[in-house]
Amino acid sequence: MKKSFIDAQTARRLSCKYPTPFYVYDGQGIRNGIRALNEAFSWCGDFKEYFAVKACPNPFLMKIIAEEGCGMDCSSYCELILSDSIGVRGDRIMFSSNDTPAEDFEYARKLGAIINLDDETHVAFLAEHGGIPEEICLRYNPGGDFSISGSIMGNPGDAKYGMTEEQLTRSVSALMKMGAKRFGIHSFLASNMTEPEYYPTLAGILFELAVRVNEKTGAEISFVNLSGGIGIPYRPEETAPDLSYIGRRVKEKYDAVIVPSRIKKLSIKTELGRYITGPHGILVTKAIHVKHIYKEYIGVDACAANLMRPAMYGAYHHITVLGKENEACDRKYDVTGGLCENNDKFAVDRMLPEIVPGDLLAIHDAGAHGYSMGYNYNGKLRCAEILLKPDGSDELIRRAETPADYFATFDFCDIIKPEFSERERL
Ligand SMILES: *Cc1c(COP(=O)(O)O)cnc(C)c1O
What CATH number should be reported for the domain holding residue 348? Predict the structure, then answer.
């Protein structure tokens, strides 16, 4: 059974203070997850997790994550601003972008970020826009299918990211001539992997590549970046990946490939997003309508504009009807939002206890790629984010949007009546 970290009483109390829907985050849960990750890789002297900011770009949460020793993995100008704003700069930023605009490279270089180059042609582009640093990372794409013990887990051959081994090796040689001294190698081959062999398999591929690149170019390979991709158990029957097992298995590959090689020693970096914040964020929404036609529908006040994953990927997000945790799940519902899109459903044919208008629902595992994928379709406004503290208190860490925010980009003209540019709803 999946348990919500926010109980009915707390959700009720918050819903009196802040209008539903809203996101709540469990800061201590985020800290504990990072500690388990750091512990699992403690055998590697300078292991570092760079939190994938796109998963949950809230500076209050990023501060908590940075306090636990993590850097930030950014991929755009605004993500760099977020990291800069909380004081995370220099080699505490990994800039893993693709199709990168010149001004993004320039800002990343100004901050002293580690640049992760997505393509061979970006070597010259970076030289022109920002300049070549001493330490730089390159993104590898092995092509074909990526499988783990016979099962296909992803298809890099269809992915736009990274470069071939030949391109990567040539880029390293070119970068050495331009003054680069230390190199990292990165790859991201599959996402949301609860399969514990993902990181060990990827580490094996990257360690072997590091050895070949070192042999061919003489370059110092200073780190391997395993990127993101560790999954979380969205469904109640799934189990969380065992981090200490993953750490041990990566060490076995390291001992077998790196230690006996000329490289001998390198550091390991990760760019996890989903694992860090995913389970520790819940979207709280209120049932506002019960509709019966050919099926039973529960209309809630959140919609896909608040949490897009179910509509976009058909992703499963567990739902708890707060206060009815112990009631029988004997009703079959579609739980819908109000977008004029029939895929705006948080759940389809889900067995739940009887729901009445006013019930509060917790939509689980929304802490990563949740709020951040939000949008304003149908004139829907983004909701607030709230941090729950260990002592039971709460802190508003992002206010809800108002119509004035929605219309802010018309501030150069006077089409929208002035009263709608005020913060408060009429
Ligand atoms: C999305 C992304 C991540 C984070 O992935 P998760 O699945 O959230 O762990 C890390 N690195 C890069 C380059 C990404 O694009």
Answer: 2.40.37.10
pLDDT tens, residue by residue, 120-177 = 999 999 999 999 999 999 999 999 999 998 999 999 999 999 999 999 999 999 999 9
Amino acid at 192: N
**Residue with the nearest Cα to atom 7 of ligand 1?**
229
Q: H helices within 178-234, ranges in order?
A: 198-217
pLDDT in tens, 230-251: 999 999 999 999 999 999 999 9
State the pLDDT at residue 423. Answer: 62
Please tell me the distance between residue 51's alpha carbon and the centre of ligand 1 in angstroms: 9
Same domain, 219 and 309: no
Q: Which domain holds residue 285?
A: 279-410
What's the structural domain count of the chain? 2
**Buried b or exposed e, range 191-214, using 16+ CB within 10 angstroms:** bbbebbbbbbbbbbbbbebbbebb
Distance, CA of 246 to CA of 111 (rounded, Å) = 32
* Rounded Cα–Cα distance for residues 51 and 72 (Å): 5
CATH number at residue 242: 3.20.20.10
273 CB within 6 A, ligand 1: yes
Ligand 1: which residue has its CA nearest to atom 5? Answer: 228
Residue 271 Cβ < 6 Å to ligand 1: yes
Q: Are 298 and 335 in contact (CB under 8 A)?
A: yes
Q: Are strands 296-300 and 146-148 parallel, antiparallel or unpaired?
A: unpaired
